[in-house]
Known about the structure:
alpha/beta
Amino acid sequence: MLGKFKRLFFIAFITVLGVASTICFAEPQDPLLEQFNQVTDWQQKKEIADQLLLTKQLTSQQRLAIYSTMAERAFTENDYPLALDFYQSQEKNSNINDSPEQYFRSIKMQGVVYYYQGLMQQAIKEYSRALAIAKQLNNALKQANLLSNIGLAYFDMYNMDLALDHYQKAKAIYETHGSVQDKADILHNIAGIYIKLSRYDSALEFYREVLAVFQQLDDKDGIAQVYGNMGVAYVESGRNQLALHYYQLALRYYQSINDAYQLSIRHKNLANLNLKLNEIDTANYHALAAKEFAIKADNKSLLLTALHVLAKVQLVKGNINEARVNLNESFALAKKYNNVMLAKEGLGINSLLLASVGDYKQAVDLHAKFVEYQQSIRSEEVVKALTVFQTQFKANQLNQEILQLKQERDLQDLKIAKRSQLSILLAIVMVLGLICSIALYRRSIERKAKIQLSEQVEQRTQELQFVAQELRAANEVKSQFLANISHEIRTPLTAILGQTDDLINGLYEPQDLKAELLVIKKHSDHLKDLINDVLDISKIEANRLELHLTKFDLIELVNDVYEMCQAHASQKGLSLAFENQLAQSHWVKLDLMRVKQILINLLTNAIKFTQRGSVTLRLSKTQSGVQFNVIDTGIGMSVEQLKMVFECFQQGDNTISRRFGGSGLGLSLSQQLAMMMGGYISALSEPDKGSEFIFNLPCKQKSAGPLSSSVIRNSQQVQLQGKVVLAEDHPDNRRLITRYLTSLGLEVIAVSDGEKAVEQCLQQYPDIVLLDIQMPIMDGLSALALLQQCGFSNPIYALTANAMSHEIENYMSLGFTGYLSKPIDKKVFYNTLASQLEQNNKQPVSESKVDMTDLTQSFIKSFREEAESLSMHLQQCDYKALQQDSHRILGAAQMFEVHDVIKPALNLDQALLNNRDKYEVDDVASLTHVLIDALDAYSLK
């Protein structure tokens, strides 16, 4: 992995120097000089240069210009040894006084040539010499460039401490003197350090920031460098498909410009990645290409890494002899050029080679050395960390000692000043003290005694007044509570006793016995709940109430509470809505009964105090857990009433108790239960406008519990009669719903899109139509509009996974009779159909079984095709088709309860729906690959 080396800068500088050289040779006296200026063929130019340099008639300036021109041309031709000779000659024939720029460049370019040859130690030596000259010239940008180059060389030698140190020094200079390009380059280099430190997310943040700058500057070389390094970060963090994508982007650019140096690096990276993915032939191709381009670039560092990876590939392929030859050559280069890390890592491969040919003893010895090297790396890291800690500790000690010395010095100065002042005032104080001390002392004692006495009397009086006020308030609260609780107890008792007397005296018809008993049970339950509230409050105050934590699905619990309260709301003519902003399943570990108790209290309160309008229960996610919002359009409360709404035995005022009933315990108990679970309840309200209670509950999401059985039972259904048109795009969902409807006695016409649904409706004229919303060719909304235009008047229901309240309101406003959510709720589904269709009482169904095992397996088998479709649409940037894919997979995964697929499909679907005008390509690609990985992983189970 390489940082962005400023080669473009070198090429631009070469062009400038070429022009300068031509100017130096303007109006040449020697025809050979004129020919040297005009010829472009490299071989001819070298021959003419040799002839010119052998002559003694050249001036020193002409000779220096020839050295400069030939050095730059040799560098561009990748003839590094010849370029080094000419740069060294240029240095010998120049000096810092007469030609400072040429002298500086000749030394700096020697370091560059060594770097491109993979000779990092020599490169650092020459860079350091050039850095000293840049400081003499007082040129900040030259210093920053050299610091960056030194850091890059240390990075390639795996010395991250020194690399980061030089990068930070360069960055400090670029912040003041550098351009936008300079700042992006140094951030690009620093990101490589984060990869080596395994901080991949931080590295990717740097790379994305740098990539935006390079794209704005249209720096294609920089963009390709970022792509390559992002690939390295994705490989190290285990996201191999994204790494392969970015590696290939970088490779295509360097193939277009035929840069041998960079092509060797990119092929080597692709060889390692394909070896990791078990694509052995592809890895072998890239390893051979890396070796070929390293030889072409004449870079020993690239060659030894290419040979290293080639040996690994050949070992996997079983080519033991070829692997041994390449590994030995890599060893030799690593030792020659002091690449200790690759030399040590090669011990592991060599031990495998020896074991494959039967030399087990030497294989074991080499493996022991390899293990010793790994342990030494960890030991060095530990020693380095301890050294840093010890240095920081000593520095802190030294700072504390310095601070203490300063404080002591300041204190000493103050003491000296105080002594001088005291010495002056001492005589005056002594004279005045002798005269006034007795009288003043006596008067001060008397005054203090009076003040203390008056303060104590006033404080005690205030305390007594406060206690008396609390006693009066407590007495009032007790009186109000006794009045409320006696009323609340007498009301159900009156009904219970009256009904019981009627039953004893036979004042009822036999057929009404069940209804009479239900009245007794209803009032008994109310009385039980009232007593339980009082007992719970008592237990909480006595610190004896304990929580019983269990693992459960929060969404299922809230749905149960919602269904419990639905009938009460309907009886009052209220609209009760549930807005679920979480997924279809959200498992937590809490006290299920207490959470349910709080939600029931909040919802029943909202319904009780609302005469018309609606009550909404909203469930959303927070940083610490979940939040429930219960919003009503009821009587509301004033600011004074809000202050005491959570106090025991309190309601807004006594008229509320008389109008609506209640003991005033519910909200107080709910608040205390919420606090026991680490949460709290707050309230917002305005008189006559309604109230909102916010229940924040800290909790962590848990893994889902065991899947429910694929056999769904419904034991209290009566078969129905009628014809149903079902439009559902996913084949497994379509078969499942068809199977369930058929089990209810219905004739089902199942189609895959809205266009076919319209056609069947106009031909068959069914009793009821079920339309999925998102379908190919024609969606559910378009199909509804077309049926309405054609005069179709039978019930049409929206069959969708989009069950948010605003979406439901939109469906209803467009003309849908109602909606049925996915995954299907068998009870709601049956009741909805039964309300629209005729029941066949001659064929009662005592138990209906819908076995969807085969459908679930069919859905799982389709994962391979779904993954291919996602990959194809992502590559084509067809985001509309990609959203249809994700929505289709989401609906089926919810229907068949494949929880591992639901969340990644939901994330991709929401990202595509929320960004229809402008897609974040990287985010969409990342979310798509996550979904593909989930499909692949589940299909292998």
